[in-house]
Write a structure and sequence with these properties.
- This protein has one domain: HIT-like (HIT family, subunit A, 2-Layer Sandwich).
- Helices cover 30% and strands 18% of the residues.
- Helix 2 crosses helix 3.
- The longest helix is centred in the middle third of the chain and has 21 residues.
- The N and C termini lie far apart (39 Å).
- Bound molecules: guanosine-5'-monophosphate (5GP).
């Protein structure tokens, strides 16, 4: 497996070199909206440690990301009046991974509405701002 690349886009977001719509942060994780959401409120939870994916992180490091996703899932149900949540996490290109800093996708779902295909379209900034505000409010 290749080494972790500190210039990947999520590493830049963590260092504040690239903007994001942050919804949650603690000492272990950062959560922000996906710029090309597959559903409204699609959020990414990433660890603060440099890790490519599940194959490159300690069990505890992975558990911190899962805890973050658990917190976001509960808030997203409220914020988006969702009927369900899809959590996904891809590992290496063969596993569907595109950005090589570990991340969990948390996607609010509504009955009968399919996910958009990955990377369909960049969401409008105003919509992302509005969705971040809703999620932050629900996180309390
Ligand atoms: P994966 O690596 O799990 O296949 O997906 C990477 C995810 O990162 C995609 O859902 C994509 O839309 C998202 N993404 C790619 N570039 C950026 C970015 O610059 N900012 C944000 N917020 N999300 C991004």
């Amino acid at each position: 497996m290749p080494a972790y690349d500190p210039n990947n886009i999520f590493a830049k977001i963590l260092r504040g070199e690239f903007p994001c719509h942050k919804v949650y942060e603690d000492e272990h994780v950062l959560a922000f909206l996906d710029i090309m959401p597959r559903a409204p409120g699609h959020t990414l939870v990433i660890p603060k440690v440099p890790a490519r994916n599940i194959l490159d992180v300690t069990p505890d490091g992975y558990a911190h990301v899962a805890r973050g996703a658990h917190k976001i899932a509960a808030a997203a149900m409220k914020a988006f009046h969702a009927d369900g949540i899809t959590v996904q996490q891809f590992n290496e290109a063969a596993g569907g991974q595109v950005v090589f800093h570990l991340h969990m996708h948390v996607m609010p779902r509504h009955d009968g509405i399919a996910l958009l295909p990955p990377a369909s379209r960049k969401e409008d900034i105003e919509v992302l701002e509005d969705n971040a505000t809703k999620l932050i409010a629900a996180l309390g």
